[in-house]
């Protein structure tokens, strides 16, 4: 994997092509080019039987330059770095910043290729590709290009673990519009990999990400909620809002308050005292190991009625004031 930084400071993760795949693509290209060269030479030779030796030699040099050198340059320019061999092997020529190549890049690559591939039978190009950390030959170095792999094995996406049942819907009044996409991505990456991290490192990362979310939203979470559970609940709330926006076509998104998805605490079923066993199945435990915030061995129905009373007093079920 190679990390390239574009002019807009965007990091691109590209997979440089190595010598075996590049050699196979070059062999396919050279086979096609030589077949075309032989065919054109035969046709031109038949048409120039009446010419003298000097004219035939000049025509031969012109054919060599046009077909063996100009042909690959034209193909790479018109196809934006995908010749027939590269297309068959899933490769592509791009600039150092990840953008498509232009005529000048193809011209430098083609001119250098005549020396390091045709005249040395690929020895110089192979040595340069083996020495280079990104598998580049001399033509790539002088042209400022890179051959990458376009077809890579797709990675299975890891789902974000769901929050504890007693936290689903408790942040429905939270204003998430100020949270940037970069922070959402960092939170998602942490939640999908938190079980692979050291316990102390994971707690510190969760606390730092939770502090950033709090600083963006301006409202602190209730006391006793673990940072990882808070992050999972906030991500779940954002996903629920996105789903409602997509399926409802955006109707009433700005006028009506979001409806908790997946069931409020009163819809969790059973007593909150059993939340430890339920939440343990999704990777989180209730704060204090027993009950949801604001409850002490109360039933889910009791927690729901308390939440309704608190809403009637002007607050949300998690103690958040509506964003205003």
DSSP, total strands: 4
Distance between the termini: 46 Å
Residue stretches low in confidence (pLDDT < 50, at least 5 long) are: 1-11, 252-283, 286-324
Tell me the series of helices and strands, N- to C-terminal.
EEHHHEHHHEHHHHH
Strand order of the largest sheet: 1-2
Give the proportion of residues in helices. Answer: 40-55%
**Proportion of β residues?**
5-15%
Mean pLDDT: 74
Looking at the chains present, what oligomeric state does this protein adopt? single chain
Main sheet, how many strands, which sense, barrel?
2 strands, antiparallel
Q: What is the overall silhouette?
A: elongated
What is the alpha-carbon Rg in Å? 32 Å
Tally of alpha and pi helices: 11
């Amino acid at each position: 994997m190679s990390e390239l930084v574009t002019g807009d400071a965007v990091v691109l993760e590209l997979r440089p092509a190595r010598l075996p795949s590049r050699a196979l693509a070059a062999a396919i290209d050279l086979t096609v080019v030589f077949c075309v060269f032989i065919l054109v030479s035969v046709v031109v030779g038949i048409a120039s039987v009446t010419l003298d030796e000097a004219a035939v030699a000049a025509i031969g040099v012109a054919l060599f330059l046009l077909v063996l050198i100009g042909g690959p340059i034209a193909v790479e320019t018109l196809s934006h770095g995908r010749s027939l061999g590269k297309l068959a092997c899933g490769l592509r020529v791009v600039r150092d910043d990840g953008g498509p190549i232009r005529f000048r890049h193809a011209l430098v690559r083609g001119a250098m290729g005549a020396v390091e591939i045709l005249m040395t039978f690929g020895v110089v190009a192979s040595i340069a590709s083996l020495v280079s950390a990104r598998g580049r030959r001399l033509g790539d170095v002088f042209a400022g290009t890179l051959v990458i792999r376009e077809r890579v094995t797709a990675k299975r996406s890891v789902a974000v673990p769901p929050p504890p049942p007693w936290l689903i819907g408790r942040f429905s009044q939270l204003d998430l519009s100020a949270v940037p996409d970069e922070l959402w991505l960092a939170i998602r990456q942490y939640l999908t990999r938190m079980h692979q991290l050291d316990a102390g490192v994971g707690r510190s990362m969760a606390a730092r990400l939770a502090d950033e979310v709090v600083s963006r939203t301006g409202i602190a979470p209730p006391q006793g909620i673990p940072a990882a559970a808070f992050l999972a609940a906030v991500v779940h709330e954002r996903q629920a809002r996105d789903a409602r926006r997509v399926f409802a076509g955006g109707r009433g998104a700005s006028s009506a308050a979001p409806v908790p998805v997946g069931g409020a605490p009163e819809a969790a079923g059973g007593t909150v005292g059993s939340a430890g066993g339920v939440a343990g199945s999704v990777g989180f435990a209730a704060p204090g190991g027993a009950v949801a915030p604001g409850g002490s061995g109360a039933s889910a129905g009791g927690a729901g009625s308390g939440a309704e009373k608190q809403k009637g007093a002007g607050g949300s079920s998690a103690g958040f004031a509506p964003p205003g």
